Amino acid sequence: MHIHRNKATDKTMSHKTYLKILNATSHDIINISVDGVDSHDWDGRSRPDRNSVGVSIPAGAWVEERQELSGGARSAWYSLHMTFANGQQITLRNDQHDAHEEHNRSYGLTGPDADHFAASQSSGKSLNTFSIEDRISPSKWMARVSGSQLLSQLSIPGTHDSGSYWSNIGNTHGQCQNLSIGRQLGAGIRLLDIRARHIEDRFTIHHGAIYQRINFDDVLDQCQGFLRENPAECILMLVNSEYDAEKVTRSFEDTFRDYVSRRSSASWYLGAHIPRLDDVRGKIVLLRRFPASAELGINLRKWGDNSTFSHTNSDGVTYHVTDRYRVDSAGDNKLAQVENLMAAATADSRADSLYIAFLSGSNPPDTPRSFAFNVNPRLHAHLLANHSSERAGVIALDFCDNPSTLVKQIILRNS
Known about the structure:
Elements: E1 15-24, E2 29-35, H1 48-51, E3 62-69, E4 77-84, E5 89-95, E6 103-107, E7 117-124, E8 127-134, E9 155-159, H2 181-186, E10 191-199, E11 202-207, E12 210-215, H3 216-229, E13 235-241, H4 252-262, E14 268-269, H5 277-280, E15 284-288, E16 298-299, E17 308-312, E18 318-322, H6 332-347, E19 354-358, H7 368-385, E20 393-397, H8 406-411
Parallel strand pairs: 1-8, 9-10, 9-20, 10-13, 13-15, 14-15, 15-16, 18-19, 19-20
Antiparallel strand pairs: 1-3, 2-4, 4-5, 6-7, 7-8, 10-11, 11-12, 17-18
């Protein structure tokens, strides 16, 4: 008699998976213990109560262990108890079946010191990765960073078309964010990409021809309010003119200077060179893409359209940018451009070189939202798989809250 076996449920077939644990905290993990393992879920000796017991992971390091799942198991839960060198203890409860499913998310911890730590998960293609991190407040992350560093030495999360968060059926190709300016800053964003249309000697926020229902005064209200509450932070603001000017009696530069003088010039850094963090805490740092007749912020006026380029301005500031917004729907080329610029930032020995990578793009009928929901989780997975304390530069995102832990993974690259 022939017996037909369904391979999806055949208990004799095992599934090879891997568990990777990254210690992104400031303390060594000196011991891991394991409990709650059900032998029904595992095949052979590659199981957590054998491979993970007694493992130690220095701060900034990671371990990867093979874990062989039984073909008949539909889940594989167990608990990892981690002890740190300072005596703190946490527990992570894992279902290793997640290795076969795609997840990019924050992950709950328990244990006596769980409030001091956070975890992020990235899984799929037989690999289940957890990053264990010191809990940080995204609204105050710069307070933990050495102020002697130049801003160009940091890894800075940003947003593309930061003011384009108006949600309307007629704005599906114009909307690039879910969060308001204030909520972006509270979530850890520190570069804002502000596109201002010059109308009647005032600035309105546009994405192309589409008015985004906020004005430059609204942007400044949110920025200056945030900095009053978080004086150890700073905000990089990339400002450019957008769409056609209308009914104006002065230049874009003159109107910008009027805003600065009316809105407290003390809250701005308008120097031509990249500053150290300590020199600009509590300030807005101008990155200028519009023409000016005299010194006004860091001059990024030369900006190639839909391109990847490098330029050194007349003040000696060198900046490297990838901003190719016409993209392939799959997003593979766009991801490669961003990852390549991040790698170049890491390899560059010049501390004052500024790197800016835009992950944003669209390819109609795809919208900025659908493209971001494709590429953002993949960048999150890349950051987890290639953890480093070296700079990644500025990374500007669409829909920066998807996935919710993406901004944090950029922040964590700051030593």
